[in-house]
Design goal:
The structure holds 2 protein chains of 2 kinds. By secondary structure, chain A is mostly helical. Helices cover 78% and strands 0% of the residues of chain A. Chain A contains 3 helices and no strands. By secondary structure, chain B is mainly α. Chain B has a domain of 224 residues. In chain B, strands 1-2 form a two-stranded antiparallel ribbon. In chain B, helix 1 packs antiparallel against helix 2 and helix 12 packs antiparallel against helix 13. The longest helix of chain B has 33 residues. Chain B is globular, with a radius of gyration of 21 Å. Classes of the chains: A mainly alpha, B mainly alpha. The interface between A and B is large, with 45 and 43 residues.
């Protein structure tokens, strides 16, 4: 049995790695992957709490998060494909037509 | 576990309509694709009837995660009326080559289903599902003009910031779930958060901040406001209307429940944060709006400023329940009035978009001569957004102002003063639109054909604003009886 604080540290690390990826990556698909890391950190948290509290609610929550994350990746990839068709590039830094 | 089907009847009717729209679209010939809209409209009206049968009821189902009370009913009626208006506004705008009408109405109604769920959600999980149900179809609708670079750019920005803030919010929710020992119902969360010891308290405060982020994005509050103008400009105008009104109101409905029910015990921590958010949001919105050349962008910045006004009552929360009640009622009243006036302004924009597709403010010069009705309507909506009589926006501002003054101490009057200064600044750009339409010489003399649906929406919004101006007691009472402050 792994103790709870270690799992929470792991998920905090995962979340931070995701935040770093969102900020540092320029490729839209990589940004999407980084957001997935953040959502998975949430799932790790929920399942860890769920097992240490002996409460099934957290696992149900995690299932919903997984389902919604899948739907969101679908939407995100659709928008990234549109971007590629319009500009032949998926670099998020070049998405700068509109400002102020 | 038995399910109270009467309580979820409005959602069931709307969900059935959504399925019907999706299937019927397959069998409609190309020139009758607009037929999805009347089907959706009938479904929305049916759902509205179902909500009205719940009037005055107190019901809870799904273990208390889904509640129907005055607060929920008031917001559901508001969202369904907004759905009728957005559907009516979409009818002629979307009926153009390149738009997939069946899919559009499917996505729009799905988003409204999320809006309906939001004020009934009394559980962190339900709030998350409702928020996502509003957002996810919204991402697709924002990028609906997929042949334009601006449309895709607006959609991508909306999507990335939306998913990022959702992830942060979920991280906060997962920590709250753990800290409270497995509680997700809002009232239980409030109870459990009150019993934490000092070391856990710090963690709880950070989690509250995380959760607020998800909703701050939805209502386009200060650090998360930059997607709004880009997305509104790139999206079809009716979608911008949806995002500016229904989606924002849904965000506020969720935020009201979280702050006034679940996190009320920690108000000393988050009141200064909300004070800062409110001041920054309204000031940035108003200052940047001053220099806008495009009408939808102007409405986006105006919407950011208005979100700042609605955030202000959150910063008024104290331990005194009477003050909280007043703050809650003023926020609710402002959201409802904001919805009416903004939908009216977007309806006028849709009516003028055939004539000037780019909707630059300079295109509006002298429109009063070819479309006097639209110009009068727009003038009233602008006057109302500015908070000047004779329109209901005036009373909405007075309510927030009064709540701020009666809170007292230093913070209340200070916030009230900043709000007044901001309102004065906003008068310049709101009335500049009216001036452009009425007093500038007409350049383009093509007559404006206003479809009956659009004229009806503009007329009804004007009537509602004047009605609430003459009888301010009606909506402040509606807001009063629908409070969640115990």
């Amino acid at each position: 049995m792994i103790r709870l604080p270690f799992v929470l540290l792991f998920s905090a690390f995962l979340f931070s790695a995701g935040v770093y990826g969102v900020l540092a990556r320029r490729n839209a698909v990589m940004v999407l992957m980084a957001i997935e890391l953040m959502l998975n950190a949430v799932n790790v948290n929920l399942v860890a709490f769920s097992s240490s509290l002996h409460d099934v609610g957290g696992q149900i929550f995690a299932l919903f998060v997984i389902a919604v994350a899948a739907a969101e990746v679908g939407i995100g990839l659709a928008i990234v494909i549109l971007l590629f068709r319009n500009r032949a590039s998926i670099n998020v830094d070049e998405v700068n037509l509109l400002k102020w | 576990m038995t399910v109270d089907y009467h309580a979820i009847l409005p959602e069931l009717i709307l969900a059935g309509t959504i399925m019907l729209v999706l299937v019927v679209d397959l069998f409609l010939p190309a020139r009758l694709k607009w037929g999805s809209m009347p089907i959706g409209l009938i479904g929305v009206l049916g759902s509205l009837v179902a909500v009205l049968t719940l009037l005055g009821d107190e019901r809870a189902t799904f273990g208390g995660a889904f509640v129907v009370d005055n607060f929920a009913v008031l917001f559901k009626v508001f969202f369904l009326v907004a759905a009728v208006i957005v559907l009516a506004v979409s009818r002629h705008y979307i009926d153009q080559p390149g738009y997939y009408q069946g899919e559009y109405y499917f996505l729009l109604l799905t988003s409204f289903l999320g809006c309906l769920l939001m004020p009934s959600s009394r559980d962190l999980l339900m709030l998350f599902i409702a928020l996502e149900l509003v957002s996810a179809p919204g991402f697709l609708m924002a990028a609906f003009r997929k042949w334009t670079v601006t449309g895709v750019e607006g959609g991508l920005k909306f999507f990335l910031i939306g998913v990022l803030s959702t992830a942060v919010m979920l991280f906060g929710m997962s920590l709250i779930y753990g800290l409270t020992g497995g509680k997700t119902r809002l009232d239980e969360v409030a109870g459990a958060l009150g019993k934490l010891d000092a070391s856990q308290e710090a963690m709880a405060l950070a989690s509250i901040l995380f959760v607020v982020v998800g909703f701050a994005f939805k209502v386009s509050a200060f650090p998360f406001q930059f997607w709004a103008p880009d997305t509104y400009e790139g999206a079809p105008v009716p979608v911008a209307a949806f995002l500016a009104v229904a989606s924002k109101a849904a965000g506020f409905a969720g935020l009201l429940q979280l702050m006034f029910v679940a996190f009320i015990g920690q108000h000393e921590f988050w009141v200064p944060i909300f004070a800062f958010l409110a001041i920054a949001t309204m000031t940035i919105g108003n200052l940047v709006a001053l220099q806008q050349r495009q009408f939808v962008r102007l409405l986006a910045y105006s919407g950011i400023a208005q979100a700042g006004y609605i955030l202000l009552p959150f910063a008024l929360v104290t331990t005194d329940q009477a003050v909280n009640q007043q703050a809650f009622a003023s926020a609710t009243a402002y959201i409802l009035i904001y919805g009416i006036m903004n939908l009216g302004a977007f309806a006028v924009a849709v009516a003028l978009s055939k004539r000037s597709p780019r909707l630059l403010i300079s295109d509006f010069a002298g429109v009063a001569r070819v479309a006097p009705f639209l110009a009068v309507g727009m003038t009233l909506f602008m006057v109302s957004l500015a908070g000047v009589p004779p329109a209901a926006g005036f009373w909405a501002k007075i309510l927030i102002f009064g709540a701020a003054i009666s809170r007292g101490e230093v913070l209340g009057p200070l916030l009230a003063a900043i709000m007044v200064v901001n309102s004065v600044v906003s008068v310049f750009y709101y009335l500049a639109i009216a001036r452009q339409m009425i007093f500038q010489p007409l350049e383009d003399t093509t007559p404006v054909r206003t479809p009956v649906l659009l004229a009806g929406v503009v007329g009804l919004s004007m009537a509602a604003l004047l009605f609430f101006f003459l009888l301010p007691g009606t909506f402040s009472r509606l807001a009063d009886i629908s409070t969640l402050v115990a």
